[in-house]
């Protein structure tokens, strides 16, 4: 059995703890039968640590009270903010495999350990929303066969999509994820503000949101692009800029120009 400790219980760390504990019940799916026939005896979350010493009632595993005297484990996952990864790794007194979960931090951030790696999931997590890890891609990087075996065991028990990316590839994936998730969600926020100011129900645009994603996946984002910037509709663009609040015009203008440049308008 692989015994695991998770350090950091923010959105990702909390969901990872939940995912590991949920594996005690084998899912009735082809994935579970093919890759994790005996998951109950494969993974065990033996504890978690957070700086606020907050016990999480939804977790069965115990809250650990000291990061410098953790119990013996096979794998320690560092799910902290990026700036703390190296210092946390340096403070550990362990022979366990140590892996961080960042998309933008190099593998070498935990290279003070003998066996180390990265366990990165390109997904947006929230504590209030449970995720089906089986559908989530898991991107691994590791320094040796021992770390590879441990991380692949965890990855294959949680997900049906496990792949290897080096640090540079993972950084590029993370940048793309910021565009695809964080920037797009911010655009949703700005759109919601515009609708709210005009007393318009935001759900009127939900079908458009769904169709935008469907077209981008079915065609390609490049082929799916429509709108005034794509067709260089100067009159409409000018009217939009005039209608927007002053602080919002720069963002609209920047995205419009980016689209126009992409299509040679």
TrEMBL record:
UniProt-listed InterPro entries: 6-PGluconate_DH-like_C_sf (IPR008927), DUF2520 (IPR018931), NAD(P)-bd_dom_sf (IPR036291), TM1727-like_C_sf (IPR037108)
Pfam families cross-referenced by the UniProt entry: DUF2520
Domain DUF2520: 137-258
Alphabetical list of PANTHER family matching this protein: CONSERVED HYPOTHETICAL ALANINE AND LEUCINE RICH PROTEIN (PTHR40459)
Protein's name in the database: DUF2520 domain-containing protein
